[in-house]
UniProtKB/TrEMBL annotation:
KW Iron-sulfur (keyword) present: no
All residue ranges annotated as the Tetrahydrofolate dehydrogenase/cyclohydrolase NAD(P)-binding domain in the record: 138-289
Keywords of this entry: Amino-acid biosynthesis, Histidine biosynthesis, Hydrolase, Methionine biosynthesis, Multifunctional enzyme, NADP, One-carbon metabolism, Oxidoreductase, Purine biosynthesis
Function comment: Catalyzes the oxidation of 5,10-methylenetetrahydrofolate to 5,10-methenyltetrahydrofolate and then the hydrolysis of 5,10-methenyltetrahydrofolate to 10-formyltetrahydrofolate.
NCBIfam families: PRK14186.1
GO cellular component: cytosol
Annotated positions binding NADP(+): 164-166, 234
Quaternary assembly: Homodimer.
Organism classification: Bacteria, Pseudomonadati, Bacteroidota, Cytophagia, Cytophagales
Keyword match Methyltransferase: no
SUPFAM superfamilies: Aminoacid dehydrogenase-like, N-terminal domain (SSF53223), NAD(P)-binding Rossmann-fold domains (SSF51735)
Pfam families: THF_DHG_CYH, THF_DHG_CYH_C
Protein name as catalogued: Bifunctional protein FolD
């Protein structure tokens, strides 16, 4: 069994980006700039956004963090998005989710210029991804593709079973695995809450990708010998031995499943660390006008 090391892979990708930024700087080119909008003080969101800003510093990107109180109006937020859409200094930007209930998240995401939508959530980027056109790919599925690629895992002709159909993970993952590019060319099954006999499907998976948010959902009896298992789940469970008071658990019963696998991601340290690397990749692509020309 080989552990798919997301931390090491993420560092390698960020080192490659940093080298490219250094080369751009040396030639006197424009340094890529990522802006992030954060609404409110939710602990998880603050940490995620701070980590994104720190990553920008580390690899040499410019960055700006725009913060609002929970009470910000939808109109004010939309005005800021318009401003960022038109700001030539900003190559890409993100609006950290979730947003307060009085703000329509879809309206906000659709207001972002697709050319600057480095989270890849705008319907234009989703549509382009489905059509096989150049697009910003959402970070988590793109990170999983990188893991498969960098560990040279064969995907062509394999049966890939994805559990979960969210817009940010399960659905784009299933589409990307079915595309006629590597990693892809797989036969894909997508499972959800109403799937009858989940284990019947998972046992057929050469590649099993689980994005649900239910710790321990996938047990050893549900996994085929030699399968590649990618665990996206990250649920905070109480843990008094930790300073934070919690630890992260995946959707897969790692201790019992790992011994049956050819490759498996740990939680934490698997898919999670790739998210930032892929956001940085999208920002670099935005700065280089790679997607929309
Ligand atoms: P989500 O929007 O809540 O979607 C969960 C999906 O799981 C839904 O499609 C749901 O089906 C399905 N589901 C729920 N219970 C199920 C069951 N018993 N059997 C089969 N399917 C079931 O979650 P998400 O945003 O995709 O995130 C999933 C997990 O990944 C979470 O733990 C999240 O924290 C984690 N995550 C991690 C990263 C990262 O590491 N970077 C990024 C994103 C998400 P229905 O559609 O039928 O309701």
């Amino acid at each position: 069994m080989t552990l798919l090391d997301g931390k090491k892979t993420s560092e390698a990708i960020q080192d490659e980006i940093a080298a490219e930024v250094a080369a751009i700087k040396a030639k006197g080119g424009k340094v890529p700039h990522l802006a992030a909008i954060l609404v409110g003080n939710d602990g998880g969101s603050v940490t995620y956004v701070n980590n994104k800003v720190l990553a920008c510093d580390r690899i040499g990107f410019g960055s700006s963090l725009i913060r609002y109180e929970d009470s910000v109006s939808e109109e004010e937020l939309l005005n800021k998005i318009k401003e960022l859409n038109e700001d030539p200094e900003v190559d890409g930007f993100i609006v950290q989710l979730p947003l307060p209930k009085h703000i329509d998240a879809n309206k906000v995401l659709e207001a972002i210029d697709p050319k600057k939508d480095v989270d890849g959530f705008h319907p234009t980027n989703v549509g382009r991804m489905v059509a096989g056109l150049p697009a910003y790919l959402p970070a988590t599925p793109a990170g999983i593709l990188q893991l498969l690629k960098r560990y040279n895992i064969e995907t062509k002709g394999k049966h890939c079973v994805v559990i979960g159909r969210s817009n940010i993970v399960g659905t784009p993952m299933s589409i990307l695995m079915s595309k006629c590019t590597y990693p892809g060319e797989a036969t894909v099954t997508i499972c959800h809450r109403n799937t009858v006999d989940l284990a019947h499907h998972t046992r057929q998976a050469d590649i099993l990708i689980v994005a649900v948010g239910r710790p321990g959902l996938v047990t050893a009896d549900m996994v085929k010998e030699g399968a590649v298992v990618i665990d996206v789940g990250t649920t905070r469970v109480p843990d008094e031995t930790r300073k934070s008071g919690f630890r992260l658990r995946g959707d897969v019963d790692f201790d019992n499943v790992a011994e049956k696998c050819s490759y498996i991601t740990p939680v934490p340290g698997g898919v999670g660390p790739l998210t930032i690397a892929m956001l940085m990749t999208n920002t670099l692509r935005a700065a280089k006008h790679e997607v929309y020309g």
